[in-house]
């Protein structure tokens, strides 16, 4: 009898906490028969809205500036996914897919969790960007309240 | 090579949410080799302090009343553990131990998690008693913030 595939979403960002959460989950809660587990790495790029074509003085940004910001955002996403790969590459049989959304991290994470129909969402406890954290409070707290599936919040030990 | 035993604490109470959390964890995140997983069912009885020997009018409660309250608290603990057993009895090889503490649910849960050195704490999202919930806010929220280990918060689907 084949067991149903289990879908897991791990929210990753540039924080050590999110990489630790991914690593902890793989080490501790992925059963030996990895074949039945599909892990989605989900990442939220900042919403395009914050790249206003106007700066504070109302002048139009040049397309060069916009292209630079766009490139920076793409590089950041690539770098996060690359770091995640360093974490999961030792778990040979685990199936991993990347999903990159654009927008507010909470909306992207909760939206993808819904759309992908995941069984459990894994998050670091203080992840999702120091700017968003400072401005908006803890993304993981809010996602834990909002999503319908079980949520695993992994804290990185201090030492 | 023997793998390290994994210790899991599941906080149970009289709520359906906590029983669902136990069941969901057993079904979804306990690997096939149950032998390496030890599950502590932890339950907090109300603190003895709420059984004041004086009632609102300042009269001393009779020892009969105190005995009745004590018995009610014990019966409630027994009933919760009995319901939990109905949930876990189908998972034949899983090792379960009961730990009943006395006091504020948050202190008992966080304290036991520390003392027992558990690797992950599993809680229902709205559990731990309707009185405490109303008076003190969500126990699971606070435990998730306080304990050092990863916390899995399981929501019971609406349907």
From TrEMBL, chains A, B:
It comes from the Eukaryota. It holds the Pfam family Usp. Gene3D superfamilies: HUPs. Residues 6-155 form the UspA domain. PANTHER family: ADENINE NUCLEOTIDE ALPHA HYDROLASES-LIKE SUPERFAMILY PROTEIN. This is Universal stress protein PHOS32-like protein. The lineage of its organism: Eukaryota, Viridiplantae, Streptophyta, Embryophyta, Tracheophyta.
């Amino acid at each position: 009898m084949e067991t149903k595939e289990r879908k897991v979403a791990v929210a990753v960002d540039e924080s050590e906490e999110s990489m630790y959460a991914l690593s902890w989950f793989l080490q501790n809660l992925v059963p030996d028969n990895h074949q039945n587990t599909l892990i989605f790495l989900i990442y939220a790029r900042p919403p395009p809205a914050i790249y206003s074509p106007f700066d504070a003085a109302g002048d139009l940004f040049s397309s060069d500036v916009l292209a630079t910001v766009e490139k920076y955002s793409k590089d950041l996403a690539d770098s996060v996914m690359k770091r995640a790969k360093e974490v999961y590459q030792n778990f040979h049989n685990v199936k991993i897919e990347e999903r990159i959304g654009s927008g507010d991290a909470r909306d992207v994470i909760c939206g993808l969790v819904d759309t992908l129909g995941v069984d459990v969402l894994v998050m670091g406890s203080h992840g999702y960007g120091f700017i968003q954290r400072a401005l908006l409070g803890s993304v993981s707290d809010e996602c834990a309240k909002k999503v319908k599936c079980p949520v695993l919040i992994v804290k990185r030990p201090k030492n």
